[in-house]
Amino acid sequence: MSLMTTARQLARFTGRTQMLTKCLATKMVHTETQNSATSGGERARFPGAQAAFVDKPLMSLPENSEPIPIYRAMNADGVFEDPAQDPNLSRETVQKMFRDMVLLNTMDKILYESQRQGRISFYMTNFGEEASHIGSAAALSPDDWVYGQYREAGVLVWRGFTISDFINQCYGNREDEGKGRQMPVHYGSKKLNFVTISSPLGTQIPQAVGAAYAFKRQPNNDRCVITYFGEGAASEGDAHAAFNFAATLDCPVILFCRNNGFAISTPSKEQYRGDGIAGRAAGYGIAALRFDGTDIFAVYNATKQAREYVLKHNKPIVLEAMQYRISHHSTSDDSSAYRPAEELEIWNTVEHPISKLKNYMKQRDWFNEEEEEKYVKAIRKQVLAQINQSEKIPKPDWREVFQDVYHEMPTHLKEQMKQMEEHVEKYKEHYPLNDFKN
Fold this sequence. Notes:
The chain is α/β, with parallel strands linked by helices. The chain has helices spanning 3-33, 91-116, 130-139, 153-159, 163-171, 204-216, 237-248, 268-271, 281-284, 296-313, 341-347, 353-363, 369-392, 411-426; strands at residues 145-147, 194-195, 225-230, 253-259, 262-263, 266-267, 287-292, 317-322.
């Protein structure tokens, strides 16, 4: 054995000895300065977790954990039990909140009937959840990105999506920003930083986390990302993957769960056994805040605080809005089959978010019944007129289905489009070509 080899082995042995000595010394000092192991004072230093040692097996049972409390700013009468929780928004802002909720509610009723009449293929209403949309949107910056699920139309209303924008999308005509390629209620707006909704449940959650991570890496970032999803979507694998990525990558993302009680026809009690969705946050190392989703000021205050938190610390947060889906899940659902009418009546009256905000405004003499009746009539008239107009607008050119897939259309798509053109020309009497843009 060479002298150099011997020296290397000695150096390795010396290094290991020093490391072992240091670890033992640390353990001795640690043990001396802590209480005994039997009292749970000594703390483990495993890479996977750090907690106190105990001398008896202690099983952690879910029934022994207190549920996360639900923050409420005002009661059903529009009264703040703690006046300090009133965000003291201007009269103009509160009136916009109220009228945006009324606009959404009115438009929903007419478009729902439009589907029942066979004029559009599908629709989803937002009854009972208007406050979680408007309250959260008001607390965000217009530059913040939004990844919606399918029941966040109020966020778009707040940001300026027009009645014509909504109806053209539902009718899939050439004025639709999505060029008629999506199902109704799958909205999107680049100028409003609202990423187009997609049908697969939960896919928007990891996408939002990725966008937030990209924002974090930009110098002097002042934008966050918010993603909305229901408690049913939180059962998807995408949700769990997104929670873990958001936590480990420290992403400035607000994970906003609309817990409305039902995943289509499945009640929440059959969806999960734990403490809702906010209760999962601690397991991923994420902050959480739960609040009354029918109280627009609780939603506003919670979202505002969440936005400040994620941007200051570059960390995610789970928000859980506790509310009730008054409507059917969609036009493909009949909720009367799985819940009583008496239950609906409560949530559609005293617990309705529009009623609560109306009571708040009445106390401040900000509400005029006659003016609101005129406003509702005007909105109805505008929606009905837009439907009549949107129905007459031709569908996009069918060739556009081949476009926007690649930056430059590849050869195989060009060949397919040519084959389709030849087919349509040959059998044009079988296709409603007059309904499409030439």
